Amino acid sequence: MVHGAFEPLAGVDHYTEAGRLRADDLAVRGHAAEMLAHAAQALMAAAAEYRRTHVPPPTREQPFPPPELLEPAVVARRCADRYASVADRVRNAAFPPDPKKAWKKLRGPGAARLLDLDRSLVGQAEYAAAVVNGVVAELLAEVPAREADEALAAVTATLDERTAFLKAL
Questions:
Q1: SS3 145
Q2: Helices assigned H by DSSP within 62-144
Q3: pLDDT tens, 47-91?
Q4: DSSP 123
Q5: What pLDDT digit, counting tens, does each position of 116-151 carry?
Q6: Dist CA 13 CA 22 (whole Å)
Q7: Biggest distance spanned by C-alpha atoms of the chain
Q8: More confident residue, 113 or 110
């Protein structure tokens, strides 16, 4: 029997074990993708602020700014694009088409393996976001692009491993 605010939803399919599995999968991937997307937004904002404050306006004598002056903003935008790309990939990763069959196979050691992969995915996404945490226009030249690429590669590798595990179910 349903009481309170959910009373009008009595006809809605309640979560089954398989439905919870799918909801948990969406929540985990959504959380990881959101951290990466926020990092991408911070990088884009810092790059825009850098261009606004550090790049002089064009003049007749020099219509284009020197490339070395633009380099930090270009590197930050590329890095932001990679963060956004990985966030989209995490958010849109496939789930087994039949969650009921997947749930049956995930009981026991399978569930523990999926939990480990989910923890790794979220932990690596947190680390990747922390690599560029607090980026501002003044420090844009010091963005650790290589470390960010390595962190994103680890997220991608874990996502690939997780996808392969779920496909094998």
A1: helix
A2: 67-91, 99-106, 109-131
A3: 999 999 998 888 889 888 888 989 999 999 999 999 999 999 999
A4: H
A5: 999 999 999 999 999 999 899 888 888 898 999 999
A6: 14
A7: 78
A8: 113
